[in-house]
Amino acid sequence: PYRIGTAQELAWLARTVNSGAGETLCAVVTADIDLGFQPWPVIGVSAPFTGTLDGQGHTVSGLYISELSGRTTLGLFGAAANAAIRDLTVSGTIDLAAVDMTGGADALSVGGLVGRGSGITLERCVSQVDITVSLTNAADNQSAGLGGLAGRLAEGTHHLTDCRNEGRLTVTSAPGSRYLGGSGQGGLGGIVGSITADAVLTRCVNAGTVTAGRAAGVGGIAGRLDGGAVTVTQCANQGPVSNDTAASLLRRGGTGGIAGLAVSGAVTIDRCYNTGTIAGHAIVGGILGGESGDY
Length: 295
Hints:
By secondary structure, the protein is mainly β. The chain has one helix at about 5-20; strands at about 1-5, 25-30, 35, 50-65, 75, 75-80, 85-100, 110, 115-120, 120-125, 125-135, 145, 150-155, 155-160, 165, 170-175, 185-190, 190-195, 200, 205, 210, 220, 220-235, 235, 240-245, 255, 260-270, 275, 280, 285, 290. The strands form two sheets. It has a 24-stranded parallel β-sheet that branches. Strands 5-8-12-17-22-26-30 form a seven-stranded parallel β-sheet, with no helix packed on it.
């Protein structure tokens, strides 16, 4: 495997993957890495990361992303497909202002570790990334998937085991009739924002704060479950989760300690618990906010 021990070597990994030359690349992190809060190019933009990264218990700190720059998948990794990431902690800041995805080919997917996953495995990973996103009143913004570890889990089968979020997630929407999750498959979650494929989440914990100005599908572990067979086992939310406390959505919403909305698919929530404060106006639950319906 390639040995990654400096910020320059991690940037090389990003360039290699983004050039399309990093297919099934295998790498190990050999030391803690400080990215210095310099603009991060993102691993897996024009081509997804399809290999294996073993963090060996190390931390990548100083992640900083403040612009879309034409990208729709953002995190330490943007897009990852049939990939495995293990034993890695990432810390830093993602701060996106006045996001407008109008006319974009893909929905926005933002996570501390992975923006959009297709058939990925995450094991013993920790996100300490603070994520702040402000959305304009554009229709396409409603489909954004925003999560502490992963923004969106799409095609394939996913396995997240013993992962943890400690970062703060804050999403605001500009005044108007549109809001995150109001249309499409958008959501905000401490671990994953939106899951639209088969997934198994085991012993994952959110300890961060999850806050939405107004949204449908806000959860401590997962925001929106919308398709596929999803099993959430022995997971815990310990952080405060709040959504639409100003009651601007009237009878709409969907906020839960484990999952905000379970809209479709076969969903199993087993031996999970919530100790965080859950605040919202409508469709609120300590474990599950809402099931199939109009949100």
